[in-house]
């Protein structure tokens, strides 16, 4: 099942047919291209340019918050690969994120009296932060592949609790409960990505540098995930999700597909985990609990299941929501008097999952699709 | 020996509470094919209502328990009507995620109502102890076991003997056929959630009677009913009871004997024991001890 490179119809004879019809595809590869329309190319460019400009326009805390969005988006893409594309519901994502975080701290963190750390370069610790969770994911996956649906959800939920216990007990690596540990040092060949630097005469703050770094990583990993999703493996994921028995009958190796889905997803989770403590400063083992897993599920449910851009939108939504509630609280009735800001955030979080599942199962991305198709067909939209 | 007996009695006590919560899960799962992750939130809300009735309205303890069960039955049925009824016909995963969302909404509500206080249930047992097989054990553990198992037995008899129970079992077996036979399937969903809510309230009271009272975070204790239903089988009440008591005893034994004998496993290892048992159970019997194997069709 290679990409069908049939170059049959397009040549000379049909040039005339194609003229003025930019969205008429005569090749599968062109239809499946990442940026298959002119407006997509334009607006993606504008969006990227705008994202690159943002850190110069916003305050420090907002830049930090957007960096967090990128990190959550990487983790969200990972969960979307296994849950959205391959249909294997995982409540254990927090465990893999945590594993990535502590792997990065072990390899890249500074040692102290009580903590172990190797102080290696980011070129080593960041890949390791992905690889170690990936290996664990590959180990767990054959077990997870034995069970389906809700059983799988509950099994992975068990993983979170076991993981939380491990993180609490491995004090020499994680710092222990309520103490935590600082993130690894993001230094590549002497260049620190989390330090104020002067580049080509521009003085850049550390938040800005790390923002650019995380954004670049998100773009690379997003494109990789998107490519995986439209490859042979991605089609196998979708087949397993839609009906696993039917997929097996058609020759999709079930176990291998599920194992790969878990492995790749855990890799993404681990990378997000490696970056997270750098962005937030220090992190406790308690952070990687069930709530954290549910946050990731909310990211893909609210953003859009089985879409990469949806994962990013969802991450932005989940990370920025608390801030939004905080900012708007003084203008809203009830909040602040009857319920505190924090409680309003949590309740809104739960309510939003329910509202999106009931009203728009395809998430914000689905809303965008509906809007786009409405205007695309306007004035004949029905 | 005395320590062993005391430990087992304590384990059976807490295990029967797990069984009670698990039966709530099972009833909803059988009726609607949904695993109700919101159950733990119902458990602490039930405990809160009980404390409210006892201390703010001065009701005697048994009346307060009945009152909180009734209140939670109402909340359960309402929840089903508002949030779960629109999910009929949707994939089970979506419905399960709705209950996860509900869990957070209800949990936050309960945490807000309870605050940072420790609530007590005003139960008559307190810390008093009783002679049992040559050692003294907490009265409360015996009471927990008896009350929980009685409640589960009542549910079992109700499902087996009453007309409504028959209708519920018919719904569980096949919703469309039940509908064709004149069963009001929607109402059965509501009744299932109401029963489950009432059981959750009772379980909440049982958890809260333990010496230390109850805090909002105990919702995560109630999550231990998930390993129980996996071990027992998602659709088996008998399985819930057996697995609940097994896991309760295993947890209590670990708590007593692991410190000192196996310190390398770390502090509070008993908290993860139910989950480890669940993982092993899934490896050996993916459908639990008494669960029905899922029929797979292309």
Mean pLDDT of chain B: 87
Radius of gyration of chain B: 19 Å
Strand content of chain A: under 5%
Shape assignment of chain B: globular
Number of domains of chain A: 1
For the sheet with most strands of chain A, the description reads: 2 strands, antiparallel
Q: Multimeric state of these chains?
A: heterodimer
CATH topology of chain B: ABC transporter involved in vitamin B12 uptake, BtuC
Number of helices of chain A: 16
Strand content of chain B: under 5%
Helix content of chain A: 55-70%
- Strand order of the biggest β-sheet of chain A: 1-6
Largest Cβ-defined interface:
A-B, 40 and 49 residues
The number of E-state strands of chain B comes to 2
Biggest pleated sheet of chain B: 2 strands, antiparallel
Structure explained in plain terms:
The complex is a heterodimer of chains A (382) and B (298). Chain A is mainly α and 382 residues long. Chain A has one domain (38-377). Helices cover 67% and strands 4% of the residues of chain A. Chain A is built from 16 helices and 6 strands. In chain A, the strands form 3 sheets. Chain A has a two-stranded antiparallel sheet. Chain A has a two-stranded antiparallel ribbon with strand order 2-3. A two-stranded antiparallel ribbon of chain A has the order 4-5. The longest helix of chain A is centred in the C-terminal third of the chain and has 27 residues, at 254-280. The radius of gyration of chain A is 22 Å and the shape is globular. The model of chain A has no long low-confidence stretch (mean pLDDT 87). With 298 residues, chain B is mainly α. Chain B has one domain (2-284): ABC transporter involved in vitamin B12 uptake, BtuC, CATH 1.10.3470. Helices cover 70% and strands 3% of the residues of chain B. Chain B has helices at residues 2-32, 39-56, 61-84, 92-114, 139-161, 163-173, 175-180, 185-209, 219-222, 225-232, 237-261, 273-284, and strands spanning 129-132, 135-138. Chain B has a two-stranded antiparallel sheet. The N and C termini of chain B lie far apart (55 Å). Classes of the chains: A mainly alpha (382), B mainly alpha (298).
């Amino acid at each position: 099942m290679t990409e069908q490179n049939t170059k049959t119809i397009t040549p000379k004879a049909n040039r005339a047919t194609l003229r003025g019809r930019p969205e008429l595809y005569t090749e599968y590869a062109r239809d499946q291209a990442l940026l298959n329309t002119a407006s997509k190319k334009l607006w993606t460019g504008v969006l990227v340019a705008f994202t690159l400009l943002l850190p110069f326009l916003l305050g420090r805390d907002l830049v930090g918050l957007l960096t967090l969005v990128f990190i959550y988006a990487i983790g969200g893409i990972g969960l979307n690969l296994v849950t959205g594309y391959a249909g294997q519901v995982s409540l254990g994502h927090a465990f893999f994120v945590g594993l990535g975080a502590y792997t990065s701290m072990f390899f890249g963190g500074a040692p102290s009296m009580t903590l172990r750390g190797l102080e290696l370069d980011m070129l080593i610790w960041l890949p390791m932060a992905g690889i170690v969770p990936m290996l664990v994911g590959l180990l767990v996956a054959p077990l997870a592949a034995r069970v389906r649906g809700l059983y799988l959800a509950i099994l992975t939920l068990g993983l979170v609790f076991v993981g939380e216990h491990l993180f609490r007990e491995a004090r020499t690596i994680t710092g222990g409960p309520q103490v935590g540990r600082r993130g690894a040092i993001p230094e590549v060949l002497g260049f620190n990505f989390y330090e104020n630097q002067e580049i080509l005469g521009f003085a850049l703050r550390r938040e800005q540098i790390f923002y650019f770094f995380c954004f670049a990583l998100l773009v690379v990993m997003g494109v990789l995930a998107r490519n995986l999703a439209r490859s042979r493996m991605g089609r196998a994921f979708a087949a397993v999700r839609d009906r696993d028995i039917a997929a097996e009958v058609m020759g999709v190796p079930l176990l291998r597909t599920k194992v790969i889905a878990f492995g790749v997803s855990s890799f993404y989770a681990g990378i997000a985990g490696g970056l997270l403590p750098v962005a937030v400063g220090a992190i406790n083992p308690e952070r990687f609990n069930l709530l954290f897993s549910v946050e990731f599920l909310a990211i893909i449910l609210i953003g859009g299941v089985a879409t990469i851009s949806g994962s990013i939108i969802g991450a932005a939504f989940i990370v920025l929501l608390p801030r939004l509630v905080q900012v708007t609280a003084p203008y809203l009735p009830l909040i602040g008097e009857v319920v505190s800001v924090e409680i309003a955030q949590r309740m809104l979080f739960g309510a939003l999952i329910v509202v999106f599942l009931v009203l728009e199962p395809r998430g914000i991305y689905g809303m965008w699709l509906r809007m786009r198709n409405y205007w695309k067909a306007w004035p004949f939209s029905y | 020996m005395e320590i062993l007996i005391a430990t087992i009695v304590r384990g059976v006590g807490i295990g029967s509470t797990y069984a009670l919560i698990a039966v709530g899960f099972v009833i909803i799962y059988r009726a609607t094919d949904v695993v109700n992750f919101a159950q733990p939130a119902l458990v602490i809300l039930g405990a809160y209502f009980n404390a409210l009735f006892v201390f703010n309205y001065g009701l005697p303890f048994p009346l307060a328990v009945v009152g909180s069960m009734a209140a939670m039955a109402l909340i359960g049925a309402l929840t089903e009507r508002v949030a779960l009824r629109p999910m009929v016909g949707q994939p089970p995963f979506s419905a399960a995620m709705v209950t996860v969302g509900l869990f957070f909404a209800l949990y936050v509500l309960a945490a807000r109502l309870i605050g940072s206080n420790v609530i007590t249930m005003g139960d008559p047992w307190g810390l008093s102890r009783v002679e049992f097989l040559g050692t003294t054990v907490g009265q409360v553990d015996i009471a927990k076991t008896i009350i929980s198992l009685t409640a589960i037995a009542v549910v079992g008899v109700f499902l087996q003997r009453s007309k409504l129970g028959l209708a519920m079992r018919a719904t569980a077996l096949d919703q469309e056929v039940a509908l064709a036979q004149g069963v009001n399937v929607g109402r059965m969903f509501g009744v299932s959630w109401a029963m489950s809510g009432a059981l959750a309230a009772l379980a909440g009271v049982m958890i809260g009677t333990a010496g230390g009272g109850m805090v909002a975070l105990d919702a995560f204790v109630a999550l231990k009913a998930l390993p129980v239903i996996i071990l027992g089988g998602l659709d088996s009440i008998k399985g819930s009871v057996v697995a609940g008591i097994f896991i309760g005893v295993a947890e209590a034994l670990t708590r007593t004997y692991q410190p000192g004998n196996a310190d390398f496993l770390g502090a509070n290892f008993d908290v993860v024991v139910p989950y480890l048992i669940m993982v092993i159970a899934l490896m050996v019997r993916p459908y639990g001890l008494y669960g029905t194997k899922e029929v797979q069709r292309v």
